[in-house]
Predict the 3D structure of the following.
Amino acid sequence: MNISISQEQGRVPVTVIHLDGKLDSNSFQKLINEAKVVFDGGARHLLLDMTKLTYLSSAGIVALHSIAKLFRGESLPSADAGWNAIRSLEKERVGGAQQNVKFLNVPPEVKSVLDIVGLAASFEMHTDLAQAVASF
């Protein structure tokens, strides 16, 4: 998967991570690492642009969950905690949508996976960049 990063300015600065390819066991750690770098650099509002995301596996779900925890100021789960992370989604769903991590242009096949695992309700999803940036 290719990952690129850009910045947008709304009421607050928004970091946009653009995903291109498959978010799976080969790429999920790369995405987590990139999110950690921008978070450590001061980013607090993250938009994941999924326009070119072609596939989301269970490892990708772990990455999304980990990034949400990071941007809530929580510690990242350990690398071997993948299925525990997925199991913990049920407990976290009660809290509503993430405030600091949002999605842009989620492809239907990826949205379907998010719906199946119950993660769709945990993230705001936008189809317009300006609207997404203004939502922070």
About this structure: The two ends are 27 Å apart (CA to CA). The chain has five helices and five strands.
